[in-house]
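Shipment paperwork, digital attachment
Item: protein structure file
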Amino acid sequence: MQWSDQGMVLSTRRHGETSAIVQILTKDHGRHAGLVRGGSGRKARGVLQSGNEVSVTWRARLEDQLGTFTVELARPRVAMVLDDPLRLAGLVAATELVEITLAERQPNREGHAGLTALMDAIESDPDWSAAYVRWELAMLAELGFGLDVAHAEPGAMISSRSGEPVPPEQLPGAGERVLPM
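Attachment content:
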């Protein structure tokens, strides 16, 4: 088995002395893990940073095996935000959220496109934090935990039980928790 794709590095963990297990969100193959030989070395460490865009080739004998990645840097997004701690934190938070929420090996073109658009905003948009919140709300909706905030009044709170906005005059008693919007 072999395929090639474009993707974004989500995480890297050391494996053995020189290798690394890398999670990548690919355009056509979804979140995928693979072994990168020499991935813990000095050369590959810069390429395998969370948020970097890469061209990747995956190879394995059988489809359900871990397989190995051959990775080539396509766009060093981390280098673009390295001097801004808040942007760097947003980039890392987004990649971690994708890694823990999306199912492995399930194609998700919308998820990849959304993450790429968010990374573009983090990299260059002065109002990137609003783009991050919109992306996270879209991610929650895709996972089935959407919040209906479109028709909320100013000063409304969000019900922790239903996810619906609660106007200030209808705040519940002590039985239900509400979160500020």
